[in-house]
Amino acid sequence: MSTRSRAPTAPSGLGARGRAFWRRGVVGYELSDTERELLAECCRLLDECEALRRTVDADGTTVAGSSGQPRVHPALGELRQHRLALGRLLAQLALPGVDESALASPVQARGRRAAAARWGNQ
Hints:
Layout: H1 16-28, H2 33-59, E1 62-64, E2 70-72, H3 74-93, H4 106-119
């Protein structure tokens, strides 16, 4: 009899992109409860990005304003905010990349650049 544990079930309500990302996360890595929560939020944000992108694709990048003037589609601003939030959550989750090193958080990346600038020439 195998003692291998089953991968955690994806949170309910995820779309195709979110479920696929969930599967890659839980199959490829051993995650703590906190990391699974972060992964779930990343999956939800991916699905929301997909929905916002479909809205912009259907409506175009501009919509009519209150006086009929063209204005930037509000979904584009939301999509930008969702992508920023997703980037922050992914950095916080710090899943190893292809080269097996963890993704750096913004603070870590700044620190690495500062160290390279100071010590890289020696």
